[in-house]
Structure formats: C-alpha cells, structure tokens
C-alpha cells in the first residue's frame, strides 16, 4: 500500500474531521464539533498560520498533520511546529506518520527553516517508537497555564 502526502483540500473536510475527532478521542478530550469546525476554518483560510498535510493510500486519506511555522528567538530563526499528527488506527504501521514528518522536513529544508518540532504524551508508546526513529527528544518539560 503506497502512501502519498499532499496539502489538504477542501474536499477532505469530512475525513479530516473524522481523523481530528479520533486524535482528540485518543488524548481523552471531549468530542467537540465546534472545535473541529474552528480548526477546519483555520486550515481552510489561506491567511491563517495553521496548515494541514494529509497522507493518502489508495485514494483515501489515512492520516493528518496540522502544522504551522513559528519563530525560534533563541536560535534566531524559524521552524515548523507539528501540532497534531494522527493516523487512522486501521492503517497504523503503514508509514503514513513518517511520510508526513518527512514531508514537513522537506518543507523546512526548502524554506531554510531550522527544524520540525513537536510534543507527544510520554505514555504514547506507539508514536514514540516512530518519533525515536526519526528525531531526537529534547530535555524540556512543557507547562500550561490556564486563563
């Protein structure tokens, strides 16, 4: 099963929404059509910073990667932040996740960006097996301050 990666298209909205809900379900977040509609509106807006790439196999979208460029003041440059990466559970192990990461690495290289960066739960063993193969972990702890 060959995997191809491309920018998301408007026709992908229903499948993207399904996979985005799967991502939120995986992390124990409440299912929210409102959040999905908001995020999709960002992706569909060419002036918004959030972009999306999809992995496709046999004409079906099997994985999504929501990402954006961001400034790295400590390094004096910019990079790509991969916000959400999710592969349909039925197609895990197909290479879709690594293909999406490689796609973002290629964009970063083409644009002269410093890196592709992302976070994951320390308990996400399946994803971490992939991430440990394609990237190096950094020794930082993430904090969140609710407002």
Key traits:
147 residues; alpha+beta; five-stranded mixed β-sheet; 27% strand; 4 helices
Number of strands: 5
Topology order in helix (H) and strand (E) letters:
EHHEEEHEH
Shape: globular
CATH architecture: 3-Layer(aba) Sandwich
| Residue fraction in strands | 25-35%
**Taking all residues together, what is the mean pLDDT?**
97
Strand order of the largest sheet: 1-2-3-4-5
**Major sheet attributes:** 5 strands, mixed
CATH names the topology as: Aminopeptidase
Layout of helices and strands:
Blueprint: E1 3-7, H1 13-26, H2 33-44, E2 51-57, E3 60-72, E4 77-87, H3 96-111, E5 116-118, H4 125-134
Parallel strand pairs: 4-5
Antiparallel strand pairs: 1-2, 2-3, 3-4
Helix pairs in contact: 1-2
Protein architecture, described:
With 147 residues, this protein is an alpha+beta fold. The longest helix has 16 residues. Strands 1-2-3-4-5 form a five-stranded mixed beta sheet, with helices on both faces. The protein starts with a strand and ends in a 13-residue tail after the last helix. A hairpin with a 4-residue loop joins strand 3 and strand 4. It has one domain: Aminopeptidase, CATH 3.40.630.30. It contains four helices and five strands.
In summary, what is this structure?
The chain is built from 4 helices and 5 strands; from the N terminus they run E-H-H-E-E-E-H-E-H. The protein has 147 residues and is of the alpha+beta class.
